[in-house]
């Protein structure tokens, strides 16, 4: 009896320690973003929204936030369209060396972001393409395409193949099958791929840092703020970034799970 | 809309497997044809050739006199009703049924009106706004039928459409399918492995086995006058009694069997040569002829082994006196008293006996049990 109570206590404290380890840094970050004082370190002097006010009135931070959103949504859209087309082609048609092609599409997942960024930087220099938000977007498509392809490819089953066959039988051309039957049927996984891509792009630093010049994304802007020392304002903007990521994941959960639960 | 179909010497080879072996068939406009056979007999392959999902290795397919050789499924005057219905899960029933018309660039109001008319025909008018996942299996099946008919195809191809339904619903849908076919007049080509379904709906049945056509004809002729052992055994229960043809005279055939010598009228069974191996095919219900008038043949006495009551008849297993290793299945009248150990006379009307060339092999016999 006592031993069972003890083991229960032990497992609960393990759980608490585990979640503490994961979430304590975030909790501290968020807590000290409300710090009424100049330094985001203990002791906590009381709550104020002053630093959030400064974040939202900082035009550089706000334009970086807009840039981040544009890059995230744009690159996620392109990655999803390309990923869907690649998955459709490989799942529905007999293509030469399709196993090798699938491998090559997923391969960038195993390469570190730093290597991808360096490779792209060299390529852009060689091609004479000047660095901008476009080049950051291209970098994010490179890292998110394998993910989008893998998610969408995995959800393409034989049952849908038969439905696509029915659409063709009723007179649909290939592009009509893709846009009016396959894509709507696969919408849950396409949306999952889209929101995950947006989240990854939103948080990504290395590629955004190496491939941008004058217009930068939010993580790069935060990094340059950090060089001038710690400040509750950096905590506040970090909290905003965290909140947006959480919101995106919530949307993903709601949309995708509500849709799949219906079936 | 309706059209004749003509299949000439169609062969389909997958690797080293011949799925369809030199099949020729003429289908009249407005006919309800059922392709019947066990799985792997080539019936679904033949349907896929008509729909254009496969192209024949050799041979031609014509619909309404036009060669379909290079015509893609979308451009053929055919639509298919798939076994798993293949409805579009994200569209309402109205949009499902109207899809083919949308692909043919029919205006929204017109195609919706047409879709609702067809949903009305299959009894689902009030469900037009529902999604397929809200329907039962039988209802989905009706939507699939309405969707396939909405584009007014010349030929409707049905790939075991009733396979997923339970028995009662299947019988009900058979009646509906037949009634709808008579109403729209479209040529229906229906694939099934259920011989009762085939008899219930077909104008003509095409019995297939191992990539070939075994027999073609009306349900009555296929059941009563099958042309091959396979066809006889696949179309319900049958007793095969092997024998040899002793003599073929102008008006009578004499056949020597383990159960004695049988004499049959010759006019039905022309074309057999003396000493050839032959088989008498006898349906279980034809042993009931011990009463009544007219010509009779007898196969001697048989002992009742066991019997069970089926409502419309008693089904009994009998072992003949002259050849006790053989088991004969017979249907006795409702009122008969079946007692194991009793002796009965195996009496038949000679016109009900079918004489077939060859002796039954193991594969032909399997059709009886499946």
TrEMBL record, chain A:
Q: Does the keyword Membrane apply?
A: yes
Where is the protein found, in the record's own terms?
Answer: Cell membrane
Q: Where is the ABC transmembrane type-1 domain?
A: 65-252
Q: Which PROSITE patterns match?
A: ABC_TM1 (PS50928)
Q: Which GO terms describe its cellular component?
A: plasma membrane
Print the keywords alphabetically: Cell membrane, Membrane, Transmembrane, Transmembrane helix, Transport
Entry keyword annotation includes Ion transport: no
State the protein's name. ABC transporter permease
What organism does this protein naturally occur in? Thalassospira profundimaris
Automatic annotation (TrEMBL), chain B:
Q: Which UniProt keywords apply?
A: ATP-binding, Nucleotide-binding, Transport
Q: Where is the ABC transporter domain?
A: 5-235
Decide whether keyword ATP-binding is in the record: yes
An example GO CC term for this entry is:
ATP-binding cassette (ABC) transporter complex
GO MF, any single term:
transmembrane transporter activity
Q: Per its UniProt record, what InterPro entries does this chain match?
A: AAA+_ATPase, ABC_SmlMolc_Importer, ABC_transporter-like_ATP-bd, ABC_transporter-like_CS, Mo/tungstate-bd_C_term_dom, NA-bd_OB-fold, P-loop_NTPase, Transp-assoc_OB_typ2
> Quick one: a GO biological-process term for this protein?
putrescine transport
Pfam families (alphabetical): ABC_tran, TOBE_2
The keyword Nucleotide-binding belongs to this UniProt entry's keyword annotation: yes
PROSITE patterns, sorted: ABC_TRANSPORTER_1 (PS00211), ABC_TRANSPORTER_2 (PS50893)
Matching PANTHER family: SPERMIDINE/PUTRESCINE IMPORT ATP-BINDING PROTEIN POTA, SPERMIDINE_PUTRESCINE IMPORT ATP-BINDING PROTEIN POTA
This protein's name: Spermidine/putrescine ABC transporter ATP-binding protein
Q: What is the lineage of its organism?
A: Bacteria, Pseudomonadati, Pseudomonadota, Alphaproteobacteria, Rhodospirillales
